Amino acid sequence: MRTYFKLFLMVGTLIFASCEKEVENWSTEAVEYAGKFITKYYDGKKLIKAYNTNQTVLYVSNTATNTDKQIFVKANYMGIQSKFDIAGTPAEFKSVSSSFAKAHNNLLAIGVPGTPPTSASDVISDDRANVKVAIVSASIKKGGYTTAAGNVTDKFDMTIKSYGGTVSFKAKVKPKEKWVKPNVPEYEWILDKIVEYPAANKTYRIEGFRHTGFHEDDIK
Question: Running DSSP on this structure, what letter comes out for residue 215?
Fold first, then answer.
């Protein structure tokens, strides 16, 4: 049985490199949270997506504030890229507030419409899922998971509240240097506001384990 250890670079210490191609930032204050996790997803008790090394990867990293009170989560399957203000320790943590007003915007859910505006007075609204996300509860348990191949790694659990919302955009004039024709104004969308749509709110449970880098632990 092999045990997956995180090895830290120290002067004069021999280091064995991990097989992972994605390099984690071990200098961050959020180092105990940071990592690549292979996950599966539940809607209530119903499994909606099983483990898949390529499709259900979830990344946890630091943000520009470089504090252990804020993390950035990228969940490929759920379409989430968002900051979270958190309280607790890696063994047990959650969002400081689970309210819609205090949750950060999900970057993947607030992209501007594909068709550009044609005047400065144009406005558009769109009902979307996952506009904001809060962590209801979460934990990263060291050595708490054994892969099918027998390798020991960290266990990952997270319950999230996904908020639906109406996302509104308004038009603004582009800078003149971006106009194709010098005398013909062009416009672009900017985010105006996001209003919660409670009927679209959902709660999901995410389970998984820290990626070991060993090929025998890959799940197709």
Answer: G
Q: Evaluate whether residue 8 is within a structural domain.
A: no
Residue 82 inside a domain? The answer is yes
What is the rounded CA–CA span in Å between residue 129 and residue 162? 7
Window from 12-26, 35-49, 198-212 with minimum mean pLDDT: 12-26
Among candidate residues 219, 213, 218, 215, the one with its CA nearest the CA of residue 5:
213
* Domain-embedded: residue 179: yes
| pLDDT at residue 23 tops 90 | no
Q: Number of folded domains in the chain?
A: 1
Give me the chain's average pLDDT, please. Answer: 88
Whats the size of the chain, residue-wise?
220
Q: Averaged over 23-37, what is the pLDDT?
A: 75
The pLDDT confidence band at residue 27, using thresholds 50, 70 and 90, is: low
The predicted structure's pLDDT at residue 53: 86
Structural domain containing residue 45: 35-211
Distance between CA atoms of residues 18 and 52, nearest Å: 20
Q: Which residues pair with 81 in a beta bridge?
A: 74
Letter for the amino acid at 26? W
Which residues are within 8 A (CB) of 219 and not within 5 positions of it... i.e. 6 or more apart?
38, 51, 52, 53
Residue 145 sits in a domain of what CATH number? 2.40.128.220
In a domain, 45, yes or no: yes
> What three-state secondary structure class fits 218?
coil
Structure tokens at 5: 């250890």
Written as six digits, the tokens of 33 are 């949270």
* Tokens read off for 150: 């027998």
How far are the Cα atoms of 78, 182, 193 from residue 203, in angstroms, in the given order?
12, 50, 23
